[in-house]
Write a structure and sequence with these properties.
- It is a single chain.
- It is built from 14 helices and 18 strands.
- With 449 residues, the chain is α+β, with helices and mostly antiparallel strands.
- It has 2 domains: 8-314, no CATH class; 404-448, no CATH class.
- Strands 1, 2, 3, 4, 5, 10, 11, 12, 13 and 14 form a 10-stranded mixed beta sheet that branches. Strands 6-7-16-15 form a 4-stranded antiparallel beta sheet, with no helix packed on it.
- Helix 4 crosses helix 5 (172-178).
- The longest helix is centred in the C-terminal third of the chain and has 33 residues, at 310-342.
- The two termini are 90 Å apart.
- Mean pLDDT is 77; it is low at 1-19, 304-311 and 398-407.
């Protein structure tokens, strides 16, 4: 069961939507209109690693098509009508009352590929988002987030929504390589699409609020210092996680076989969104539409900084895991300590005695020493196994020669004619068994005994 659940979470968490957009909106419940901005970004790569006719056609080319238009432009008016139609189909009552469009398309050919960058930015004004206002709480419609259209959008003769149309109108020879192929299907994917921002429930977005209403935030809403003291609520989408899904670039690829094998790749940026409102926003649902109930201040005692109980569960879960780990560590340490106390603990220092082992050499002597047991008690418990005697045969016994020859150096000097003449020579060559009668030999024997 756990394996199936984990696999399901991984599949759901790593699945990615098809479209991408970047939305930013700031809602003022006390005003009839509020600003928003959304950007759609995509890059198409035409790759020709083996050269070919397509390489020859695009070699050295670079051009840019850009422009801006406001709501007085017929094309912008048509786009605004399409967006409002989509918002209404999603069940939202909000509408776009003003819209400015900025577009920028850039083609650049290289030795192994050609890139075409598409960028369309919509900046406008949102209206009719207030559902009710009873003086204490204002209900705000948040179901308008999917600013999407799959229609062709022509502004000043430039079609800005279907990527392949840019190639069709500006590089007709290149367009013929993709016409009727899988690459054409990829390049016909509309650029203006923010469906996933609406499909991702706001309960999965991160929620933060600023209870101080600092003046810097007030400036982002176009308001003056009178906003000071109000709460600013913010919902943010774009984190890559199991509950929100992996937020990565969307890549689609197709091969085109002509005189050479060509590859077309479409890369679109990940989805991100930020929604802010003046006041404390509590999420709710009205007839299937996500709304926020906004009050001037947060409820008393409210201290969470994220949507729902998800972050709280993580915090408490991590604290519980840390506590369990600490308990396990102390239990393990206690057992290890007991094992050490019941085992060998070494030699009692009071039973050791030190003695010097260094020897002098000329006028120099070191201070080295060793420690030994005062007695042999319990030696078998502390001795090293390296001290055990090796099983070797005893050394051969030697038979001594005559006592005088073996014991007395004076007797050994008979060949020099100085037998027992140690006293006259002022030196003694005798050992402890010498029977020499010379005083110097006797003294030497006494000192060695």
């Amino acid at each position: 069961m756990l394996s199936v659940l984990l696999a399901t979470l991984i599949v759901v968490g790593t699945s990615t939507p098809v479209w991408a957009a970047q939305l930013d909106a700031r809602i003022n419940p006390d005003d009839e209109t509020s600003p928003f901005k959304i950007a759609y970004l995509k890059t198409v790569f035409i790759e020709y690693p083996n050269g070919g006719n397509l390489f020859d056609e695009l070699k050295g080319k670079e051009w840019t098509i850009d422009g801006t238009a406001d709501s007085s432009n017929p094309g912008v008016q048509a786009l605004m009508a399409e967006l409002n139609r989509g918002i209404a189909n999603d069940g939202s009552q909000a509408q776009i009352s003003d819209l400015n469009v900025t577009y920028d398309f850039h083609l650049k050919a290289r030795n192994i590929n050609t890139s075409v960058d598409y960028r369309v930015i919509l900046e406008g004004t949102l209206s009719d988002y207030v559902i009710t206002d009873d003086g204490q709480r204002t209900l705000i419609d948040l179901g308008w987030r999917a600013l999407t259209t799959d229609k062709e959008v022509v502004i000043d003769g430039i079609e800005i929504n279907i990527p392949i149309n840019i190639l069709r109108d500006n590089e007709p020879e290149v367009y013929t390589y993709f016409d009727g192929t899988e690459a054409e299907e990829i390049l016909r994917t509309p650029l203006i699409n923010a469906d996933f921002i609406l499909e991702q429930p706001l309960t999965n977005w991160h929620f933060l609020f600023d209870p101080t209403g600092i003046n810097v935030d007030a400036g982002t809403f176009g308001l003056d210092d009178e906003i000071s003291g109000f709460v600013i609520s913010t919902w943010t989408m774009g984190e890559s996680s199991i509950r929100e899904g992996r937020q990565v670039e969307r890549v689609f690829e197709a091969e085109v076989m002509a005189d050479q094998l060509y590859v077309v790749r479409s890369v679109q940026s990940s989805d991100t969104a930020n929604l802010s409102t003046i006041g404390f926003g509590a999420l709710d649902n009205l007839d299937g539409i996500e709304i926020a109930g906004v009050t001037p201040t947060p409820p008393e005692g409210y201290a969470t900084t994220s949507t729902g109980d998800f972050p709280v569960m993580i915090v408490y879960g991590m604290a519980a895991m840390a506590a369990i780990g600490g308990i396990g560590f102390f239990i393990f340490s206690n057992r290890s300590l007991k094992n050490e106390q019941s085992g060998q603990t070494g030699i009692d220092p009071s039973r050791l005695v030190g003695y010097e082992t260094s020897a002098s050499s000329g006028g120099y002597q070191t201070n080295r020493g060793e420690a030994q047991l005062k007695d042999d008690t319990d030696y078998q418990q502390t001795r090293s196994h390296y001290d055990e005697p090796s099983q070797q045969s005893p050394p051969p016994q030697t038979t001594p020669s005559s006592q005088d020859e073996a014991a007395c150096g004076c007797a050994a000097s008979v060949e020099m004619g100085s037998e027992c003449d140690c006293e006259m020579q002022g030196a003694c060559l005798c050992d402890g068994t010498c029977k020499c009668g010379a005083d110097i030999c006797k003294e030497q024997v006494r000192s060695m005994s």
